[in-house]
Design brief:
The complex is a heterodimer of chains A (about 325) and B (about 260).
Chain A (H helix, E strand, L loop, with lengths): L11 E11 L5 E11 L3 E5 L6 H9 L6 E6 L2 E2 L4 H6 L1 E4 L11 H11 L6 H10 L15 H13 L5 E5 L7 H16 L3 E5 L3 H7 L2 E6 L2 E7 H8 L1 E8 L15 E3 L5 E7 L7 H10 L4 E8 L2 H9 L7
Parallel strand pairs in A: 3-8, 3-9, 6-7, 7-8
Antiparallel strand pairs in A: 1-2, 1-4, 4-5, 9-10, 11-13, 11-14, 12-13
Helix pairs in contact in A: 3-5
Chain B lengths: L4 H17 L1 H23 L11 H4 L1 H27 L2 H5 L5 H30 L7 H25 L3 H17 L14 H5 L3 H14 L6 H25 L6
Helix pairs in contact in B: 1-6, 2-4, 2-6, 4-6, 4-7, 4-8, 4-10, 6-7, 7-10, 7-11, 10-11
Classes of the chains: A alpha/beta (about 325), B mainly alpha (about 260).
């Protein structure tokens, strides 16, 4: 196979196989990571600080060398065919690394050239307008706010029309309005066929935006799943009953149900698995009636992605 | 796949814009400093000194002063050029771009060498205001200036890759290159030195650079032009090998 021939890889546009990364000091940032990113999806990579999210992105994009394993982007090996692979990728880094004394227009045009594309003022103008940067095009970057600098980094990443876009914590330090603008843009890009891989601390955004979720902990990818499936499989529901009379404790006859009683004895909570056909609710309500326990209100709630995330990264010894 | 010429052009233009943005520091300051040398050593003191090898003292020091500026500016320009993205973090873009080491070097070193040659030309033109001089081998002069600028821009590029603070950027130009140039025959012929200093001077690589340039100006020099050119070419090859190795291993740039 010649170096510039993409390797067929199904609908995966990025394929990570057995990738590990150990830094010279001995710290192992990635442990045997295997991951397929599907063409055209929004993939959210979640994990606590220091879990390896940025190292994984840096390794795919070429800023960090993998100690072991292989990565392909668009079928091109990111080491052997790095030119073809990198030409497909745009990266918005987590930190606001900018050329302070350059103008917005110059720095975005520079990025396009660096990625091997001829000048295209009309495209740069469209990108700057989409990101509400057009009226700042002649401003030096150092005069811009943090949120505006973030937009500039996005414009730079989009300048060479990548088919894969990495957004490493794009919402960090960004106000609500910009965040909404940014996610609107991300959806537009996805609709236009761009594959988006993002890391975020705003889990509600991943819940809102992502098609699939990956959770990384201590360098290991512990879950990769469709968001809907993940929420269904790992999500739990709770039924909270507000009692008419306080209870001293949960009656022994009700031990078959995983019930918890609030400190004031007035709220009885039943937690159940959304995957099970038999949630046990009907039997529970009947049993409460038999014991003369009456309730005046009931409400149900479902776990959020954040709850699922916390349960996944939480370890028995309390470490995240 | 051929060269990514768009990338080379983007880096080159970016670096040239940086120099033009800081024109007072990049261009005017070195030209002014060298002019002061010409005024003091060429016009004032030089008028009271005898000729060296049939060349007036003011004219004799032109190759040395030109070399002094060329070396220090080539190293500084190239070192700052690659150090700044390391310092600001914008090197992430270079590392994730579809560029190879040749394109990076062509962009950064090409721009730094262009700036040095522009500066060298300005210094030569300025020198004409103070000291009359002639050029015996103009083609050789241009060739030697280009060769020296490119070689020492490569050397500066390596310093920029190596440096992890601003002080290190200045250490080599100030503590190594400037003394070597002053002791390398910028203001005198090494034949004027008593032994053993004459022999010791032959271990100073800058002697060969200045001597070569002086031959291009006046047709006579301390060492043969072939030796001067050969040593510069060997040094350039060594610098290229180091840059190739840095990009191959990611030393100091890729984690």
């Amino acid at each position: 196979m010649t170096p510039s021939t993409p390797r067929p890889q199904g609908d995966a546009i990025v394929r990570v196989r057995g990738v590990s990364k150990t830094y010279p000091g001995g710290f192992q940032a990635l442990r045997n990571v295997n991951l397929d990113i599907r063409r055209g999806e929004i993939f959210a990579l979640l994990g606590p600080n220091g879990a390896g999210k940025t190292t994984l992105i840096s390794t795919i994009c070429g800023m960090t060398s993998a100690s072991e394993g292989q990565i392909t982007a668009g079928g091109f090996d990111t080491v052997r065919d790095y030119r073809s692979a990198r030409a497909l990728i745009g990266l918005v880094p987590q930190e606001l690394h900018t050329d302070s004394f350059e103008t917005v227009w110059a720095t975005v045009s520079f990025s396009r050239g660096l990625f091997g594309k001829p000048a295209n003022p009309a495209l740069i103008e469209r990108i700057l307008r989409d990101l509400s940067l057009w009226d700042k095009k002649d401003n030096k970057i150092l005069t811009l706010s943090g949120g505006m600098k973030r937009r500039v980094l996005i414009a730079k990443a989009l300048s060479h029309e990548p088919s894969i876009l990495f957004l490493d914590e794009p919402s960090a330090g960004v106000d609500v309005e910009l965040r909404h603008d940014m996610w609107r843009l991300v959806r537009q890009l996805r609709d236009a066929g761009t594959t988006i891989i993002l890391t975020t601390h705003y889990i509600e955004e991943a819940e809102d935006m992502a098609d699939r979720i990956g959770v990384i902990r201590k360098g290991e990818l512990i879950v990769v799943e469709d968001k809907a499936v993940l929420m269904r499989q790992l999500g739990q529901k709770q039924l909270a009953l507000t009692l008419q009379q306080p209870l001293q404790g949960v009656p022994a006859d009700l031990a078959a149900w995983p019930l918890t009683l609030s400190d004031d004895g007035l709220t009885l909570t039943h937690t159940f698995d959304t995957q099970k056909d038999d949630t046990g609710i009907a039997e529970l309500l009947a049993a409460l009636g038999r014991h003369g326990i009456h309730f005046k209100d009931l409400r149900s709630s479902e776990s959020s992605l954040e709850d699922i995330f916390v349960s996944l990264v939480h370890e028995p010894n309390g470490e995240a | 796949m051929g060269l990514n010429l768009h990338a080379v052009r983007a880096i080159y233009r970016f670096e040239m814009n940086r120099a033009l943005r800081t024109w007072a520091q990049s261009i005017i300051a070195p030209v002014l400093t060298t002019s002061l040398y010409f005024i003091v050593f060429g016009s004032a003191i030089g008028s009271r000194m005898g000729d060296i090898g049939g060349v007036s003292y003011g004219a004799y020091i032109i190759p040395g002063l030109l070399m002094l500026s060329l070396l220090s500016e080539s190293i500084s320009n190239a070192a700052f050029g690659i150090y700044m993205p390391k310092w600001s973090g914008t090197i992430y873009e270079l590392l994730s771009a579809p560029v190879n080491w040749v394109e990076v070097v062509l962009g950064y070193v090409g721009a730094a060498a262009s700036k040095s040659l522009l500066l060298g030309t300005l210094i030569l033109l300025t020198a004409r205001l103070f000291v009359p001089y002639s050029i015996a081998h103009p083609v050789w002069l241009v060739g030697l200036l280009v060769l020296t600028a490119v070689t020492f821009c490569l050397f500066g590029f390596i310093i920029g890759l190596w440096a992890d603070n601003f002080q290190k950027l200045q250490v080599v130009p100030l503590l190594v290159i400037t003394p070597l140039t002053f002791l390398g025959g910028a203001f005198y012929s090494i034949n004027m030195l008593p032994e053993p200093w004459q022999t010791v001077s032959l271990f100073n690589p800058v002697v060969y650079l200045i001597s070569g340039l002086r031959w291009a100006f006046y047709g006579a020099a301390d060492v043969h032009i072939a030796l001067s050119t050969g040593i510069t070419l060997v040094f350039m090859a060594a610098c290229l090998a180091v840059v190739w190795w840095v990009f191959k291993t990611g030393w100091r740039i890729r984690r």
